[in-house]
């Protein structure tokens, strides 16, 4: 078991570092393909699907429906995986976006964004570990870890949509 968890920790650290470098080094120079503009909507959609599936999976396990719980959690994982691919593609081609909101909304946005980013780094190894524990039949440990994974993963999924909505309402530009 320890080897699997250590591997998840190493992979999570590599992925998080690669994402930070990708996001903050900027996108490809020059004009981006027109379809890239749709990726934030795609990202928000898959974050929404993930959040809904997480809640439905939680409800199913509370009712003792392990089979339905498992299906919803795999749906949440798949949606989060598609989100991650879309997110990486967007930032590789577009780079970072600068928030244009002013006044009281600005610190609110950045508080949400910073907590979202920090907890997404925590969520990745938690989600992978929780799945690993379940699939390896270690249900007691799975339940203990899932008590932390559930609220963090749900928060990250929901705040991803909130960040998207705030960027849509208050505006953003491609960071230089």
Structure write-up:
The chain has 176 residues and is mainly α. Helices cover 80% and strands 3% of the residues. The protein has 5 helices and 2 strands; from the N terminus they run αααβααβ. Strands 1-2 form a two-stranded antiparallel sheet. Helix 1 packs antiparallel against helix 4. The mean pLDDT is 91.
Concise overview:
Helices cover 80% and strands 3% of the residues. It has helices at 2-25, 39-62, 66-94, 105-135, 139-170, and strands at 97-99, 172-174. Strands 1-2 form a two-stranded antiparallel ribbon.
How is this fold's topology laid out?
Layout: H1 2-25, H2 39-62, H3 66-94, E1 97-99, H4 105-135, H5 139-170, E2 172-174
- Given helix and strand content, the structural type is mainly alpha
- Summarize the amount of helix as a percent range: over 70%
Total number of β-strand segments? Answer: 2
End-to-end C-alpha gap: 45 Å
**Uncertain residue segments:** none
Average pLDDT rating: 91
H/I helix tally: 5
Pattern of helices and strands: HHHEHHE
Overview features:
globular, 5 helices, two-stranded antiparallel sheet, mainly alpha, 2 strands, single chain, 176 residues
């Amino acid at each position: 078991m320890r080897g699997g968890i250590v591997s998840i920790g190493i992979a999570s650290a590599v992925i998080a570092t690669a994402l930070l470098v990708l996001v903050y080094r900027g996108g490809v120079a020059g004009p981006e393909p027109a379809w890239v503009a749709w990726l934030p909507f795609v990202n928000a959609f898959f974050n929404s699907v993930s959040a809904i599936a997480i809640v439905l999976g939680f409800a199913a396990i509370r009712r003792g429906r392990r089979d339905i719980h498992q299906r919803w959690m795999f749906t949440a994982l798949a949606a989060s995986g598609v989100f991650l691919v879309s997110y990486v593609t967007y930032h590789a081609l577009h780079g970072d976006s600068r928030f244009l909101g002013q006044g009281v909304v600005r610190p609110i946005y950045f508080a949400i964004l910073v907590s979202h980013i920090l907890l997404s780094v925590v969520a990745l190894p938690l989600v992978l570990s929780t799945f690993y524990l379940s699939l390896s039949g270690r249900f007691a440990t799975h339940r203990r870890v899932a008590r932390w994974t559930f609220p963090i993963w749900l928060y990250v999924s929901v705040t991803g949509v909130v960040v998207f909505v705030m960027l849509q309402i208050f505006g953003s530009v491609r960071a230089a």
